[in-house]
UniProtKB/TrEMBL annotation, chain A:
The keyword Lyase applies. Pfam families: Amidohydro_2. Keywords: Hydrolase, Lyase. Signal peptide: none annotated. InterPro entries: ACMSD (IPR032465), Amidohydro-rel (IPR006680), Metal_Hydrolase (IPR032466). Residues 12-312 form the Amidohydrolase-related domain. This is Amidohydrolase. Gene3D superfamilies: Metal-dependent hydrolases (3.20.20.140). It comes from Pyxidicoccus fallax. One of its GO terms (molecular function) is hydrolase activity.
From TrEMBL, chain B:
The keyword Phosphoprotein applies. Keywords: Phosphopantetheine, Phosphoprotein. InterPro entries: ACP-like_sf, PP-bd_ACP, Ppantetheine_attach_site. Residues 5-86 form the Carrier domain. Coiled coil: none annotated. This is Acyl carrier protein. It comes from Pyxidicoccus fallax. It holds the Pfam family PP-binding. The keyword Lyase does not apply.
Length: 325, 95
């Protein structure tokens, strides 16, 4: 008699974006393409930026997350967190205003009930209007967190963000912030995780997630997670290492530091769609001999879904209204 | 037939160049999946397409913009696509 096969793990992807150029300006994308072209040219390949752009843009045609929902189903991902970085202040070719972007994300929440959460981001330089929009997103749209994007030109501990963190404390929602490099269209100056330290200290009831902590400033991220009770990291962008090392070694390192109560699964979809799909990324992380192999069953659950569930559990935000026919 | 065999040999050599380190010793057969079995992602496929230009003395030009690399899943897909790309490029060159 065959042994019963183990149930597939519950997985939440805590780091995704809507795959469309509506929310992400072309200047941001062109910067990422320039890096790809540089790498190919160095290998002696006469790469055309136009062709690479065409390939990349083919993967950004999913404004309502129907493709993402299908990829999630195929990969066994129960829920994904959609992040809305606000590029509108820093990059003037962003097609939508941040309010329009928020409304589009609300549309996705209603279209796919129970499949997504949204963390809305507002550049703090938008002043009182931005604060009002963010609070509206929590009270009316059912968003469940704040997305902060320091490469747009501000520290995560800038005082202009404190009203946002106060709202996060009041509504009990987490903050997910980008750390480390990004598109060359933006600055990397304010992306060191230690720049979060003052905010994490001032707002001890707010939980902060350092995005890409498995690949960027890994030591600093691990230190912050070890020593600040309210700081976490997500492993998204581990895929950037798969061309050189298909084993996902960086994930193994992240979960070998005694901080597995702070490590959160994420894929940064659609950024790495040229490197694979959700199913392949989940397989890389969860395979039997993969980076989570040495973890206890509880630790695996923490990383794959329980840590992010815990951060979202006590949110005092609206429930997205169901769409009516 | 001999011309076909030589064409395939050239393309398989280009595919072999695109395989990342740990999988380099894999014996390449037509049914193998480019990504799952050989570790070649879409950028690796794009590099392969560009290398066709040098290998076959052609200019792919705007044909490359119509390429949907996600449809190239297996080695056989890559061979077929390469055949189409090279013959279209040659036809444009003689036109």
């Amino acid at each position: 008699m065959d042994a019963p096969s183990a149930a597939p793990p519950t997985i939440i992807d805590a780091h995704c974006h809507i795959a469309t150029t509506e929310h992400t300006p072309r200047s941001f994308i062109d910067g990422a393409i320039a890096n790809m072209v540089t790498a190919l040219v160095a290998q002696g390949v006469r790469a055309s930026p136009k062709m690479i752009a065409s390939m990349y843009l083919q993967k950004l045609q999913d404004p309502l997350c129907d493709e993402l929902a299908a990829d999630m189903a195929e990969a066994g991902i129960a829920k994904s967190v959609l992040l809305v970085p606000d590029f509108t202040y820093a990059l003037k070719d962003t097609p939508l205003t941040i309010e329009e972007s928020f409304l589009k994300h609300r549309e996705v929440l209603l279209r796919h009930p129970g499949k997504f959460e949204v963390f809305g981001g507002v550049d703090p330089r938008w002043g009182a209007d931005g604060i009002a929009l963010f609070e509206r997103s929590l009270k009316e749209f059912g968003f469940r967190g704040l997305k902060v994007y320091p490469p747009c030109g501000f520290s995560p501990s800038h005082p202009d963000l404190f009203p946002y963190y106060e709202l996060c404390a009041h509504y009990r929602v987490p903050v997910l912030l980008h750390i480390g490099p990004t598109s060359p269209a933006l600055s990397f100056e304010t992306t060191n995780p230690f720049m979060l330290d003052e905010a994490a200290r001032r707002f001890p009831t707010v939980n902060f997630i350092l995005a890409h902590g498995s690949v960027s400033f890994t030591e600093e991220c691990a230190m912050m997670c070890s020593h600040r009770p309210n700081v976490y990291l997500d492993i998204s962008a581990f895929q950037s290492t798969l061309r050189a090392d298909g084993s996902g070694k960086v994930v193994k390192t992240a979960v070998s530091r005694g901080i597995n109560h702070k490590v959160i699964f994420g894929t940064d979809w659609p950024v790495f769609r040229l490197q694979g799909n959700q199913q392949s990324f989940v397989a890389t992380v969860t395979r039997e001999d993969g980076p989570l192999a040495d973890l206890t069953p509880l630790e695996r659950e923490l990383v794959l879904h329980k840590n992010i569930e815990r951060l979202l559990a006590n949110a005092r935000t609206a429930v997205p209204e169901r769409a009516t026919a | 037939m001999e011309a076909d065999a030589k064409f395939d040999e050239k393309v398989l050599a280009l595919i072999a160049e695109a395989i990342p380190g740990p999988l380099r010793k894999t014996r390449i057969t037509p049914e193998l999946m480019l990504r799952n079995d050989l570790g070649i992602d879409s950028l690796g496929i794009a590099a392969l397409v560009f290398r066709l230009e040098e290998a076959f003395g052609i200019e792919i030009g705007d044909q490359a913009l119509d390429l949907n690399v996600s449809q190239m899943r297996t080695v056989a897909d890559a061979l077929n696509a390469s055949r189409q790309i090279v013959s279209r490029a040659r036809a444009q060159q003689t036109a």
